[in-house]
Amino acid sequence: MKKIINTTNAPAPIGPYNQAVLTGNMLYTSGQIAIDPQTGKLFKGAIEEETNLVMNNLEAILKEAGMTFEHVIKTSIFISDMNNFGAINKVYASYFNEATAPARETVEVANLPKFVNVEISAIAAKDV
């Protein structure tokens, strides 16, 4: 059975979806973008700051589900400009232990919701 995970410490969904779904020991997060959860406003600024906000939003969802970044087994990163990869990767890397970092793909796309520069989703597993 699935359990819906939502927290006020991450942006409220902007469509017909939830922040995450927990089924068994698996957590599937929706893609997070740089929306400030306190104001609901889109953040526009340096790509490093945008990526940091995205990762903080993911962290809040993981925490609500009783998990941390150590539980993440897979991420998907969507970026609007591959020239931002280095900066995004540097911020992303600061949230993980390199030795136990999750599997990942990074894809450049034509557009993202609200025309943001980066969107990241995660799959996490909690030991039973």
UniProtKB/TrEMBL annotation:
Superkingdom field: Bacteria
Pfam families noted in UniProt: Ribonuc_L-PSP (PF01042)
Family: Belongs to the RutC family.
Alphabetized NCBIfam families for the sequence: Rid family detoxifying hydrolase
Protein name according to UniProt: RidA family protein
UniProt source species: Mesonia aestuariivivens
